[in-house]
Design brief:
binds glutamic acid; about 15% strand; 3-stranded antiparallel beta sheet; about 400 residues; binds 4'-deoxy-4'-aminopyridoxal-5'-phosphate
Amino acid sequence: MKLANRVKALTPSSTLAITAKANALKAEGHDVIGLGAGEPDFNTPEHIIQQAEKAMHEGYTKYTPSGGLMPLKQSIIRKFEEDQQLSYEPGEVIVTTGAKHALYTLFQVLLDEGDEVIVPTPYWVSYPEQVKLAGGTPLHVEGKEENGFKITPEQLADSISPRTKAVILNSPSNPTGAIYTKEELQALGDICVQHDLLIISDEIYEKLVYFGEQHMSIAQLSPKLKERTIIINGVSKSHSMTGWRIGYAAGNRDVIQAMTNLVSHSTSNPTSIAQYAAIAAYDGSQEPVAEMNQAFEQRLNHVYDLLVKIPGFKCEKPKGAFYLFPNVTEAIRLTGFENVDKWVEALLEYEKVALVPGSGFGAPDNVRLSYATSLPILEEALKRIKSFMEKHRK
Ligand code: PMP
Ligand code: GLU
């Protein structure tokens, strides 16, 4: 079958593909440990589930406005005010079918053929693909390991051309867990103002920050920056609601209106029941969010200590999200595999541990390991990785 040119080079999301592979092996009866998935292992908090049930029984099972239910927009607006002292009007917020679709729709309404979007590496796998699907060109700027995987203002300034339309910031970052400081955001923001760039600030890991770190959005720094920033967020990671598919975007009214028009022809609206559940997520107790955060911090401490003891693994301790992103150049050298992809494949084959190779994130010397799973499972996974290294050492 001849497919459209736009999807010819499109590959499946490596994060989802590795998870699917691990699950298929599990279904065949293998004892697989999946550290590939970027989702919390906890179930959605009970009060959110109850709200969804109630919504169904009360008949909220119909279409909703395309851009999302007004009460949910109000909850999101209140959350922005309380957490970040940012004020938005309902016309500046759209609720979408997950944060991924907010990004997808945003690129579709922003980009003309050949427009460039600066995508710092390491990046979340879907950014470049989504930019390309919208006819844009992703321009990679290397967040160097020695700079905590963050880009510098000089790098940003040097990469801007007349075709550059926007830059993506993802803090805390998937896959590195890096967090930009207020000063770093200010310096990047100044350049965006100077060059009239739009900022796409993906804040989906906002609530997953550790060791007393505070999340800060670039939009909080000044009205000038807020005006050129579209914030992307959602309940998937913060409230362990990945399957409910509720995300949102907030920012410029015209952009949000265009996105709303576009989704009215694609998804129509995010699932009504999930939207009612998301209201409970934001209006109800935030205790479960704090509990999950504590559990992630404890796991991070533990798994980090175990990981850096394995010969060949080099890793800075991240302060956010729920991933470790070690450089495994030395591990590859020690075991003689051709590259990280082959090493990851063999680890799954021999030890049944699924990790995601860094190549999908634009960082081919690294692997991503999610610690959003229980401590005993993490310990077992690390034991297997250690044993794999010992068995395959040249
Ligand atoms: N942005 C980043 C950086 C992510 O890791 C993810 C992971 N799912 C998303 C966006 C999309 O989230 P959602 O599940 O709400 O679509
Ligand atoms: N964002 C998560 C991850 O990076 C979930 C999978 C996906 O949507 O890519 O693993």
